[in-house]
Give the backbone structure.
Amino acid sequence: MSVTDLTIILSGIVKLSAPLLFAGLGEYTAERAGTLNISIEAMMLTGAYCGMVGASATGSAVLGLPIGIGGGLAVAIVHANFSHRLAANTFVVGLTLNALALGLTDYLFTSFQLSSHSITAAKVPLLSHIPVLGPALFDVSWPVYFLFGLVPAVWWALQRSQWGLEVRACGENPHAADATGITVNRRRRQALYVCGMLSGLGGAFLSLGIVGQFNQGMTAGIGYVVIAAVIFGGWTLWGTVLGCVLFGTADAMGLVLPALGHQLNPQLLLALPYLAALAAMVFLAKSYRAPRALARPFSRGLA
Amino acid sequence: MSRGPALLHPRLSREPPHPPLLEPSPRSKAARLVLLYIVSILVALVITAILVIVVGGSPMSVFSAIYRGSMDGGGSLGQTLDASIPVVIVALGTLIAVRAGMFNIGQTGQLTMGATAGAFIALNIDAPGPVLVVLALLGATAAGAVWAGVAAGLRIWRRIDVVISTLLLNYVALQLLAYTVSKQSLLQEPTPPGGEAGGLPQSALLPGSARLPHPGQYPSFGVSIGVVVAIGLVVMLGVLLSRSRWGTQVRMVGCNPTASRRFGVKVAAVAGGALLISGALAGLAGGVMLTGSVYRVQAGFDNNFGNDGLLAALVVRDQPWALLPVAFFFGVIRTGGNFLLSTGVPDYLSQVLEGLLVLAAVFPPVYLERREWARRLRSARSAVMRSAT
Amino acid sequence: MISSSGRGRPGRIGARWRPGTGAPGRGTTAGDGQESAEDTAAFELRGVTKNYGAVVACRDVDLRVARGEIHGLLGENGAGKTTLMKVLIGLTPLDAGEIRINGKPTVVRDPVHAASLGLAMAQQHFSLIERLRVWENVSLAHRGRLTKRGAIAAVSEIGARYGLESSPHARVEDLTVGQRQRVEVIKCLSLDPAVLILDEPTSVLSVDESRELFRILRQVVTTENRAVILISHKLDEVLGATDRVTIMRDGVAVETLMTADADAHHLARSMVGRDVLLQAEMAAVGLLEGSAASPLADPPAARTAVSGPAGAIPAPDPSEARQATTALHIDDVEVLDAGGRPLLDGFSVTVGRGEIVGIAGVEGNGQSTLGDLLSGLVSPARGTIDVGGVRVAATAPRELLRAGVGVIPEDRHASGCILEMSVADNLVAADLDHYTRGRVLLDRRAILERARRLIDEYDIAAPSPLTSMASLSGGSQQRVVVARELSRNPTVLIAVQPTRGLDVGAVEYMSERLRQAAADGVGILLVSTDLEEILAIADRIVVMHAGRNMGEMGRGEVGVERLGLLIGGHGS
């Protein structure tokens, strides 16, 4: 394998991992609050579509990003209020939102023309000249650099801030959290909003930063890969990051290896995230503990 | 896409009972619920109409196209019924699993595995017509059960939450199907003589002998015998759930496994069994789709039927009999949606309409519960304020 | 254990830790160190009433607690002590009355609001979140006003000040129960409360741990001029540790008096509301020193007094009962918890047919495990169970049911009934096979018939057999459980805390039913922490401590001193 091959593979990994990482940070936040958030697929797809709509409307790919974030947030608002204000089953709502987002983006996309926009790559001086790593890591679409700030920010928010402490309390033991005076469902909604915004950003990055246009159903199940990454990561931040990068790598291999003349079973690669998550749970069962109240709705009695 | 699963948590139905306190009369409660259903469905329809207008279509012609495509005349009615069958079967199994406290959201995977196994049998076994169909359906049922059994096993031996394992197993199943239809040695359709090597990733069409009969195949009406299977299953399982020892045990286990164990119920067997039945029915639904209407497997075979079944089960909230109308409604949107193109509106609208209507069906009961709760809270609070002043 | 400041009279204020971002220090102007019960009240309750449905939990309660005192709130299980405190800290809204804090009428919205008003309560069932670390739990209580560093400092500083050492970085799930309680107290103290409320804090503590806790409470009161409310049903605790005491009975505050003016007899009478069984009652509340001197009142007299209201069914003569054949024989059973710690440690007991054997002991000494064992919910590591002379596999609930074991479990909601199902379903839940026709369908008619019969026979307040279990009162739910278990004609019936949380009528009903069942030849194992209950109906008493049978005595030979020593774990 030549050095250029290596660079191609690496930059593929970076590109394909980035949307997973954005959304993964969000899903991690939502799951720690106790929501097994299935509508992440809808959030990403809506983010991708709204991002491109925003870019088309303003003519600026950069302005597309916040609009994509808004799209993801909109999905989160619907989901959070259905599930954590009213007590509608989170899976019904999530699944329905996924179908709805797919149908709606398809419907609107076929009805209205969107122009193509992409976010330009930004070279980091000096660093981009590092052999092999440089071009892959430091000559990329600039929102990737957000990740260097977002990962520590999410870590701080969940592990060090009072908000994050409360969010984790809601995911572990909502009744005790409630007794401490935390409004459990409000925290869960907020965590879901964070998830919506980050997933929307991930989706918008997918359309604006990687592909340069919107395609129907372009997220193609990435949301579920993200869920698998959080599970694979054992509901820890670093595990989630690792899972996202690993699955992004698998994705990149699926694209890059055939081009380089190597054969690898594509179905196995696509199934890898799910198999890896299952295997991690089976073999590391002791250290793998989901938030205790994950996917358990909370309602406070009146007694 | 949107091959997402979903499941309702068993605990959802276990909200602590509130003390009776200024209870509104049951009649006014029911009336309010019906009114809310009407309002929220209207809202869903209005949103849909707005979407139609936005793209320059006419809402009236859209709704009438859906009606014509799904219910006007024997042919479309038959198609609608055909499209309702898998939904009913999947939902029925889901309902049983959920009742037993097993939150199965792996219908898509179980259905896919069922269809794959069914296709394998139908394409590789030489048997007379009816026998072959029955074998294919049995194989599909077994495969669905096995796929759910993986989740049951992981639950029992590794304590892995069924929601999580069934969710993950969906995507493994989809890739397994993709793999089998990409290998000539497995299920891929043989390359026609002189055709390009490689070929399409799909299986061959089922031979006529392996297809479900369509009784009454008149020009005006055709529906596969699967309808009989679906209705028969609803009746049988509906009765068993409410009247049998097993049905009672399923409820007991779902509500309180510890107490059930003390009462001598074999909890793991009942709960695991319910999950297997759910998988088996999803597999059977795959088999019925295969032998009744699709006739071959390929990527995307599930066509979102697994999810529709799951949603239907969650929408009916534990009422097996309500499955029949709800599934029919899913069928209406599906087949009616096919007629949308004639109106110049993209047929993706049907998916939007379905989603909006599901949300509209979910909203009223949870909204009323929430209002009731808030009302109690207010009355309790105002008592506090009164006493403090 | 830093105890230099022990019961220090001089107003020595330790280096006070304050919340990082500076919550306004409430006026904990200790200094004069004098016990000032007559100062302005820290808070005052006036006419507080709280109903749960038809049950009156608190009725027109007045309570005034001053800074600088440890105020005991004494009462039996279900007397309304905990409810009253829940009202005070805003966990549950009151139905009538008012709360005055520092003299001002106040509506306490929720526990956070209560904390900001200077009221902190360590709950009986800990409010700690197990997966989080100690400092994180402490920080949670501060709702955003405490950084990690601040929380760690608070844990260390409070730990050092009171000798409550606890590692701030430990995960709560790794701590023992005693350590968790410590964290709970640290958490409350870190809020710098004017009033610290402790709900039955010693129920999970060893004797040494309890003594340590009371030392700390004394320090909290004398050197820092806080008020402490100690909820308890143990006389010696209240007598030894409090300055004033309010006694609650059936939701009413019966009286408040200076502890120095009170004696055990008076408190016990006031708490129980009758003179009967006073001696036994004193033993039940663990009054060792006081009662050790005086011999127990003549047991037969005590029995007569109680069986009066309970009905005329005489208990079988114990000597006769003991000669009867064996209903249940548990031999040398060991049950381990997940961590390999013994819950039952070579426990043995024998119950004859028609005999009532009471198992006494402080809660948490293996009583609930014994119930689970006989329900088939836990598997013993060793030992045997014989029912009616036949060996039974202890891990199979079905076998135990078939062998004739009936269980009234400790937590009826967890394992005694299925709340979501109907009364009829609950009444036949253990006999589904019996009502199954052709192995498949249930005989609804026979089920309903039996349900109607039992509802009638056991006087269950259910409008119809199809009424949902959840809509019944606790007492009626318990009757359903009793009806189901007794109607199965068991060889032996295990009743674990069968009257906990029930009103007086339900308690009497239960004693009557148990006696009647014994008269019908059922062997009865009554597990209770309420010694009165046991002394009232048991023919023989077994004391359980740390999962072991500490010793037995016939009801004629009950001596308070011996009983007390056994309960406290001092074997013969």
About this structure: The longest helix of chain C spans residues 207-222.
